Structures are given as structure tokens and as C-alpha cells.
């Protein structure tokens, strides 16, 4: 990708063609975000967007906005991702919902997907599901496999967020069938989501096997990057190991994921990694309560900063279950978790928190 974009940049520079240089910048933005080069990604994306506005190039503005939204999501800047994608959703109406604007999938669907995922991470699950349904209607009407796969994965993950594994599986298994048309690119997102769904449903061996295949496929290939890059997948594999009763492999895998998240400035994944380390420590034999409390509190601080309300609730739940402090403080953590789960609409987790 970089070779071809570089060649296009040279030609556009020779021609003095600012519009084509801006399109090059848009694709460079995508590339840099995938490679963990956040500053360069935003610089290129913003340059493309600014030129698109100056030249009144609608398609360029749409393309650059999608990449800036995706980059913001990957880096854990969920509010900014929402702002970018709402702008696209507002203007992509009528026949425009069926246009790609230089993307592989439909720009309207991809914008709705990023918007929905960002909203869900912030705890706005009602609107997240509504936007996912909007994306599904568009993708179904066009019957484009690429867009359908992305929405099925999104829908499955939204159910997983709420603890609704049985509702997630049909969507993720449908995505698994659809992605055969472009299996290389979609393998990380489909297989990692399906793998953790299997693990959470008790199908540990199947889940771990899928996730291990993703990790192997990502090593040394282009599949190592993007929103479903190594950091995110390693944390899902760590969770699957823990669910299977293997805290040793879970710890090593989670630590690798956390290290990558920090190196690539993926702050949302960093917060999730800290929480997972808290879970692993709390489920040790015997539990390392001091370590678990430390990891939960670090995750809580970062999650609060990023506005990740469901993860904030999970951290309070973890701290409440530890009971390392006074009974009153433990009850306060559990009460906070219960209140947040109820407000967000996470019934499965609410039931667990109420049970203490």
C-alpha cells in the first residue's frame, strides 16, 4: 500500500495537482493509523480534509472523515470519533448511502459502524444499537459482502458488551460465512470476535484455537495492525485463557497486549489490558489481591479519563469483589457498579453485581 501511495504522491507532486495530493494524504492517514503512527495519521488526515473543504471536494471530505474517525477510535479518543462520524452520517443521505467514495465498503455503513462502536465504548448502548441497525439496513439493501461483514461483527460485539453471548453468536457466525469472499483482511476481526464469544459461551477449546490462529496470522503480516490489531487480539486471547483456567498463559498474553497498546498509543486498549490484569490477579490460586487492586485502580483512572463507562463499571465491580479495603468501601464499589450497569443497560452484568 505504501509503495503505491508513494508512487501516486510523486506523480501528483510532479503535476502540481493539489486535489490528488489530498487524496494521497487521506490514504496515508489510514496507513499511519494502522501502523501506530498517530501523529502522522492525524496530520495527513487533517490535511486531506482541509484541502477537501477548500476545493469543495465532497468525496474527499467523506473519505478523510472516515479515516480520522477510525484513527480516533483506535487511539481511544471516543468523543472525537463520534464527532467525526456524526458529520458523515448527517450528510450521507438518500442515494449517497450507497456510495463508497474511494473506500472498500460503503462510506455510510463504515461511518455508522465507527459511530456505534465509539458510543458503545462510552456506555451509550441504546444509540449504539440504533446506529448499528441503521448500518445493517443499508448493508442489507446493497448486499455488499464487505459492508455486511463489518456490521455483523459490530452487532455481535455490541451483544458481547452486554453479556448477551447467545445473541452475539448468530451474527458472528454469519460474518464468518460472509468473510470467505475476502478472508485475508477480515480474518482478525471476525475470528477474534467469534473466538472470544465461543470462550464466553463455554466452548473454550474452539475459542482459544481461533484466537491463537489470529495471533499467528498477525505475526509479520499486514494483519498485525488496525482496530483489530495485535494488542486487542492478545487481550481477547488472554481472557480466553483465563476462562479456560490457565492463568499463567493468560498473564503473559495480557502483558504482551498491554505493552503493544502502550507502544501504539491505543489508550482504550491500554485500559482494557489493565483491567484484564486485575481479573487475572484476582482469579489466581491464591488470588493476588494487592496486585489485582492496583491494576483495577489504574484501569479505573484511565477508563474514567477516556469516558469508558462500561469499563469503569467493571473496575468498580472488580474492586468490590476483592474486599481488600473496608466493608463499607467494598459495598460502595458494588453499589456504584450496580447503578452504572442499570443506567447503561447491561442486564447480565447488573445481575452479577447485585448478587455480590
How would you summarize this macromolecular structure in one to three sentences?
The protein is mainly α.
**In percent, how helical is the residue content?**
over 70%
**N-C termini distance:** 51 Å
CATH class descriptor of the domain at 251-356: Mainly Alpha
How many individual helices?
18
Q: Taking Cα atoms only, what radius of gyration do you get, to the nearest Å? A: 21 Å
Q: Spans of 5+ residues with little confidence (pLDDT < 50)?
A: 222-228
For the report, how would you describe the main beta sheet?
none
SSE run: HHHHHHHHHHHHHHHHHH
User: Tally of extended strands?
Assistant: 0
Q: Tell me, what's the shape? A: globular
Structural class estimated from helices and strands: mainly alpha
Please name the fourth-level CATH homologous superfamily of the domain at 251-356.
Tetratricopeptide repeat domain
Mean pLDDT: 92
Strand content: under 5%
Architecture per CATH nomenclature, i.e. the level-2 architecture of the domain at 251-356 = Alpha Horseshoe
According to CATH, the fold-level topology of the domain at 251-356 is Serine Threonine Protein Phosphatase 5, Tetratricopeptide repeat
Describe what you observe in this structure.
This protein has a domain of 106 residues: Alpha Horseshoe (Serine Threonine Protein Phosphatase 5, Tetratricopeptide repeat). It starts with a helix and ends with a helix. The chain is mainly α. 56% of the residues are buried. Helix content is 79%, strand content 0%.
Amino acid at each position: 500500500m505504501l509503495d503505491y501511495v508513494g508512487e501516486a504522491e510523486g506523480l501528483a507532486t510532479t503535476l502540481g495537482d493539489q486535489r490528488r495530493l489530498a487524496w494521497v494524504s487521506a490514504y496515508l492517514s489510514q496507513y499511519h493509523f494502522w501502523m501506530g503512527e498517530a501523529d502522522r495519521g492525524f496530520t495527513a488526515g487533517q490535511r486531506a480534509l482541509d484541502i477537501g473543504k477548500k476545493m469543495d471536494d465532497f468525496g474527499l471530505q467523506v473519505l478523510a472523515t472516515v479515516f480520522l474517525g477510525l484513527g480516533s477510535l483506535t487511539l481511544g479518543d471516543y468523543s472525537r470519533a463520534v464527532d467525526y462520524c456524526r458529520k458523515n452520517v448527517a450528510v450521507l443521505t438518500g442515494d449517497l448511502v450507497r456510495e463508497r467514495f474511494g473506500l472498500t465498503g460503503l462510506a455510510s455503513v463504515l461511518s455508522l459502524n465507527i459511530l456505534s462502536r465509539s458510543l458503545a465504548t462510552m456506555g451509550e448502548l441504546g444509540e449504539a444499537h440504533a446506529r448499528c441497525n441503521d448500518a445493517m439496513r443499508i448493508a442489507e439493501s446493497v448486499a455488499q459482502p464487505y459492508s455486511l461483514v463489518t456490521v455483523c461483527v459490530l452487532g455481535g460485539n455490541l451483544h458481547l458488551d452486554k453479556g448477551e453471548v447467545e445473541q452475539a453468536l448468530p451474527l458472528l457466525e454469519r460474518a464468518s460465512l460472509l468473510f470467505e469472499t475476502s478472508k485475508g483482511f477480515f480474518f482478525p476481526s471476525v475470528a477474534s470476535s467469534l473466538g472470544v464469544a465461543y470462550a464466553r459461551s463455554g466452548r473454550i477449546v474452539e475459542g482459544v484455537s481461533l484466537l491463537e490462529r489470529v495471533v499467528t496470522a498477525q505475526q509479520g503480516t499486514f494483519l498485525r495492525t488496525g482496530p483489530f490489531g495485535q494488542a486487542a487480539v492478545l487481550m481477547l486471547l488472554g481472557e480466553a485463557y483465563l476462562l479456560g483456567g490457565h492463568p499463567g498463559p493468560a498473564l503473559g498474553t495480557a502483558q504482551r497486549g498491554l505493552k503493544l497498546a502502550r507502544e501504539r498509543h491505543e489508550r482504550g486498549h491500554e485500559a482494557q489490558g489493565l483491567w484484564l490484569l486485575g481479573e487475572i490477579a484476582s482469579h489466581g490460586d491464591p488470588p493476588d489481591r494487592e496486585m489485582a487492586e492496583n491494576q483495577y485502580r489504574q484501569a479505573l483512572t484511565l477508563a474514567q479519563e477516556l469516558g469508558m463507562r462500561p469499563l469503569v463499571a467493571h473496575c468498580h465491580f472488580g474492586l468490590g469483589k476483592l474486599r481488600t479495603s473496608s466493608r463499607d468501601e467494598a459495598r460502595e464499589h458494588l453499589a456504584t457498579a450496580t447503578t452504572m450497569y442499570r443506567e447503561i443497560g447491561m442486564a447480565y452484568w447488573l445481575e452479577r453485581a447485585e448478587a455480590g
